[in-house]
Amino acid sequence: MAKAAFDASDTPTLWTHEPHSHLEFQPGDEVGDIKANATPGFKGSKSDAPDLQDERNERFAELQEMLYARSRSGDTRKILLVLQGMDTAGKGGIVKHVVGAGNPQGIRYASFGKPTDEEQAHHYLWRIRNALPPAGHLGVFDRSHYEDVLIVRVRDLVPPEVWGERYDEINAFEKELVDDGTTIVKVAMFVSLDEQKERLAKRLKRPDKYWKYNPGDIDERELWPKYQQAYQAVLDKTSTEYAPWHVIPCDRKWYSRLAVTELLIEALEGLDLSWPPADFDIKAEKKRLDSV
Ligand code: AMP
Ligand code: MG
């Protein structure tokens, strides 16, 4: 039997509260205090994760398909998942193991690296606007406009008076998206310096991981304290009531994946979705089908 779309028993019982209440950035929270190996709000253990992940992936997939289905009959709402984090934090794993459970027809994935010459010739939000999710889609930003106040700030790629203006501009941009029917789920993924080292070492050891390794990752690693400051500024200045940041400890991949899954489910449930009704006469169509 198909699972009912909405069922209070779906509430994830292995969480002490709604996950977002543990994860939402609060004014005064310090990046330096984040424990990347913590599992805030989760009562279960690693051994509970695989089954729970499967179960919640299914719920996510059902809702995500519903969102897409509704867009076929004019619902223009969309979700935008913004993933930010240092290399190895696990952005790719979220894309593969969480978002990957959804229906690709309704997913718009975009990753943002060093701007191309063409991108560089435009305002920094140009490439971002071009990658926004259409109606009914889940947009996934693997890195985002926040790079323009992270690496750009850390590496002095533009003068401080230029990047300094961007926080307000980003807030205004996100407000525009929200007013246009986008639910923004912002996820800041924090891995510890030690865990990053292990993950980079693995990338250097395993042929199936070489593709993820970039010598430049070590250069960014050397700038860790400056990145911590830049992340702090992002969280302080761009956590808004309409687009709050969530801080995800990422040393335990099983935890970060469960946590982001819950944030997505929560965002989708907040849209109060249902399957679109038939826009044809069901009885008449059954009859027609019987006759051919
Ligand atoms: P990856 O996501 O591992 O493929 O790496 C992409 C790289 O591009 C990261 O080092 C980002 O910090 C960098 N990057 C992304 N956006 C920008 C930007 N606007 N300016 C400069 N570098 C960027
Ligand atoms: Mg990388």
TrEMBL record:
Chain segments carrying region Disordered: 1-20, 26-53
UniProt entry keywords in alphabetical sequence: Kinase, Transferase
A GO term, aspect molecular function: kinase activity
A biological-process GO annotation: polyphosphate metabolic process
Entry annotated with the keyword NAD: no
Top-level taxon of origin: Bacteria
Keyword Nucleotide-binding applies: no
Start and end residues of each Polyphosphate kinase-2-related domain: 57-269
Pfam families, per the entry: PPK2
Database matches in PANTHER family: POLYPHOSPHATE:AMP PHOSPHOTRANSFERASE, POLYPHOSPHATE:AMP PHOSPHOTRANSFERASE-RELATED
UniProt-recorded name of the protein: Polyphosphate kinase 2 family protein
Species of the source: Mycolicibacterium hodleri
Lineage: Bacteria, Bacillati, Actinomycetota, Actinomycetes, Mycobacteriales
